[in-house]
Amino acid sequence: MRTTSVAAALAVAAAGTAGATTWDFCCTALSFALSSSYHGPSSPEYGNLTTARWSTTSVMHPGCVLTPSTAREVSVAMSIIKTAGCQFSVKSGGHNANPGANSIEEGVSIDLQRLNSTQLAADRKSVSLGTGITWGNAYKAFESEGIAFPGGICEDVGVGGLAVGGGQSIFQASKGWVVDNIIRYEIVLANGKIATADEKKNPDLFKALKGGNTNFGIVTNVEIAAFDFGTMWGGEMILNLNGPESTHTAMVDNLTHAMVNFVENNNHDLDTGLQVITTNLRNGAQLVDLSLTNTANIGNPPAIKDFLSAPNKLIDTTRHTTLATMAHVASEAVPKGFRYITASLTIKNDYKTLREIWDMNDAVFQGLPVQGQVDWMVSLIPQPKVQKSHAAARGGNMLGLETADDEIVLWLLSRWNNPSLDDMVSDARQTFLDKANQIAKANGADSPFVYINYAGYNQNPLCGYGKENVDFLRQVANKYDPSGVFQKQMPGGFKIGNVQC
User: Is Flavoprotein set as a keyword in this record (predicted)?
Assistant: First the structure.
């Protein structure tokens, strides 16, 4: 029946769109085959669907939007898209600032928001999530059951994108990357086939999806290892760095030492989590935003005592709370509606390197021609070497971190409102990246790893996985998508076919 409906839709489109563009042909066929999930530019939902993005830099104007509610509808869509050869994009939560990452100009935008199912396994050891649900809603769905699982730190991040990019979570030390906790993927391949990928079925695809990004198909459902979980301790602590230079320098020195010590200790205290966000605001404020967690529900844990005792506290929201609430708090720090630009790099857990990058980062912000309209943040995220053991326990992933020692991921996150400042902020972002990499290399503290979900549009994170993994990803992409649909027709994401290392 599906083949007939696809053939009929294509026939109708061919008859009614002679001489039209490829995307117009696709949209016409999709409107016939999947009318209840189709939204053209004249539909009342079109506007909200196209602007529902975390960053306004990723808002585009597709020829049509499709909101499938089942994997079968995604299958029909892919059959039409592949046959017609039109360009398309896929959106889960839309929490990526890179233009074209989750939308497209004139082509077909596939919005997975209605793939929002949640199911707890009978043995309570795993949950199944539709990839259009956000992590905040996923956490809330199982809160009353006393169940949790590794997932996104921010509530409005979608399950789909994180599930193929790696996935940082507040369980990083105790459970590893989110992909290391995925038991099964349901995926729609380029030819429309609905496939399962796990350790027994399509194991090569299963491994490739764990960090391989948008190169193989559209993931529609994931099964993730779960565990009993009640409340936790956590919140934000904001420190003021404005003041005399000597006080500022002493605080940054102490915070840098505390960060390096924490990363090393995180191999032993697996329950305590931390992110340090250095912040230069458009109003002139210099702040440090500490995101603190303890998943064993221990208040003020000893592992973060040096942060807890830091002076100049402006805000302290730490308390006993829930996972869903912590995800909400994290999202409040990076609200929707701004123009964002991101970039990432990784350094070894080295005091000298981190301290020099901190000062350099402040100098880059101070050098902006227009400071009063830009907020400039760099998040420091611990990567204790213990997390490698979690990857090995489930067959490995694609991230290339098997031999990594203690490291720190840096996530540059800048926001502003005026599109006329885009080039200025983009240039400053590149300056930060170039100088940070130079500092790390000079100190022998550089790392090839670039976290793909934080990477900027012109970075090359797949190369950081290493030659063996890059070759493997190419082989898997060629096997499951021999026509190169996801390489040629879906511009969003980082493409293995374009990688030159």
Answer: yes
If asked whether residues 255 and 391 sit together in one domain, one would say: yes
Q: Is residue 472 part of a domain?
A: no
Please state, in angstroms and rounded to a whole number, the distance separating the CA atoms of residues 87 and 362: 41
Calpha distance 341→422 (Å, rounded): 9
Q: What is the pLDDT of residues 147-197, one digit of tens each?
A: 999 999 999 999 999 999 999 999 999 999 999 999 999 999 999 999 999
Same structural domain, 251 and 389:
yes
In a shared domain, residues 206 and 301: no
Query: Would 470 be classed as within a structural domain?
Result: no
* Alpha carbon distance 281, 287 (integer Å): 8
Q: How many CB atoms lie within 10 A of CB 39?
A: 23
Residue 276 host element (H or E): strand 272-280
**Backbone torsions φ then ψ of 201, nearest 5 degrees:** -100, 120
- List the Cα angle 331/275/243 in 5-degree steps: 100
CB 337 within 8 A of CB 153: no
Task: Return the closest-CA partner of residue 275 out of 286, 291, 264.
Answer: 291
Q: What is the pLDDT of residues 423-439, one digit of tens each?
A: 999 999 999 999 999 99
Which amino acid does the sequence have at 110? I
| Domains in the chain, number | 3
- 140 and 208 inside one domain: yes
* Cα 240 from Cα 242, distance rounded (Å): 6
For the chain, the farthest-separated pair of C-alpha atoms sits apart, in whole angstroms, at 75
